Amino acid sequence: MKQAMLIVNPSSGKEEALDHVETIKEILTEKGYEVSVAQTEKELDATKYCQGACKDEFDLIVSMGGDGTLHKTINGMVDQTHRPLLGIIPLGTVNDFARALDIPLQVEEAVDVLRSDQTKAVDIGRFNDQYFVNIVAAGAVAEATSEVTPEQKTKFGSLAYMMEGMKTLTNHSYPIRIEYDDKAWEGESFLFLAALTNSAGGFENLSPEAEVNDGKIHGYVVPKVSMIRLATIASAIVRGNLKDEKDVQYFKADRIRLTSKEELVTNVDGEEGDPLPVELSVLPSHIQVVVK
Ligand SMILES: Nc1ncnc2c1ncn2[C@@H]1O[C@H](COP(=O)(O)OP(=O)(O)OP(=O)(O)O)[C@@H](O)[C@H]1O
Questions:
Q1: What secondary structure, in 3-state letters, does 213-256 show?
Q2: C or N: which end of the chain has fewer Cβ atoms within 10 Å?
Q3: Confidence check: pLDDT of 168 > 70
Q4: Residue 91 confidence (pLDDT)
Q5: Would you say 32 and 2 are in contact if contact means Cβ atoms under 8 Å apart?
């Protein structure tokens, strides 16, 4: 019999994950799965449960939570030899990865997707010795977005990231060296983003050129510019044409190395990551996700 594990974070978003467990069990039982349920209590539980399910050669893992739960689940799967199929029920406040994969944000509809036999291979990013699925940001804005509280997220959603990010952007630049494949950019920058998908912080147009399985990391450097230019660039982020702004440096790469003379933090899929220096690379089409 096929084996499925539901990794359930009861605290994500509006705290409704447990309400959907029975329906999902029924759907998967009909599809011939034996279903086990693993409820998370703390930060690394999702990683631990997922590692166990990979070692026991489960066929399907369903992440029921927000991007944090998904990020931790995927981190338990990426370096395993047996990687089960991944189902995603977006129950967080932002749910960037679900947005990027066109998985409905309406929970009942997302649950219904589990009936589908369609799957899509997606790229996974390596960030030093951990992994990411959406985006890495470097510099002061990364610090600011890590400081967005769960209360702000619940109240303002993606706007909370925008508000914190913009507050910081307007008065903070930093020296950075970005080596990508055999090229390099060096200078004062307001913001550096490395995207694997189109959506980050709930902005589905942030990096529209990034396809989930194009095997590339999409880099955007916003250099230090005047406040007026910065306002135009900020509106280009919302409109979805950041890469066309004349001061913005855009590139596609297999590998990126970031260094700085200053102490700089990073933000990885919405959570604080290692400070620079960091190395990024991509594992092309590494995980199969159930899609509609
Ligand atoms: N039972 C639990 N009670 C409280 N916190 C938990 C529990 N289980 C896991 N966590 C914490 O919840 C965090 C992940 O939350 P998650 O990102 O899924 O939801 P969210 O913050 O509401 O969503 P989003 O990231 O989309 O805004 C994990 O980092 C983990 O530390």
A1: CCCCEEEEEEECCCHHHHHHHHHHHHHCCHHHCCCCEEEEECEE
A2: N
A3: no
A4: 97
A5: yes
Chain center to CA of 94 = 10
Cα 117 to averaged position of ligand 1 atoms, centre (Å): 28
Separation of first and last alpha carbons in the chain: 24
Cβ–Cβ under 8 Å, residues 75 and 43 = no
Domains and CATH numbers, the chain: 2-117 (3.40.50.10330), 132-283 (2.60.200.40)
Q: Nearest residue CA, atom 7 of ligand 1? A: 41
Residue whose Cα lies nearest atom 18 of ligand 1: it is 66
Number of H helices, E strands in the chain: 9, 15
Residue 55: how many CB atoms within 10 A of its CB?
11
182, pLDDT greater than 90: yes
Across the range 151-172, mean pLDDT stands at 65
Rounded Cα–Cα distance for residues 142 and 192 (Å): 9
Is residue 201 classed as helix, strand or coil in its secondary structure? coil
pTM here?
0.91
d(CA 226, CA 232): 10
Record the tokens describing residue 177, joined without a space. 């060296």
- 240 closest CA partner among 282, 213, 190, 206: 206
What single letter denotes the amino acid at residue 262? Answer: E
Within 6 Å (CB) of ligand 1, which residues are found?
Answer: 9-13, 40-43, 65-69, 92-95, 150, 153, 270
Q: CA dihedral defined by 17, 156, 100, 290, rounded to 10 degrees?
A: 10
In this predicted structure, what is the pLDDT of residue 267?
87
pLDDT digits (tens, 9 = 90+) for 60-82: 999 999 999 999 999 999 999 99
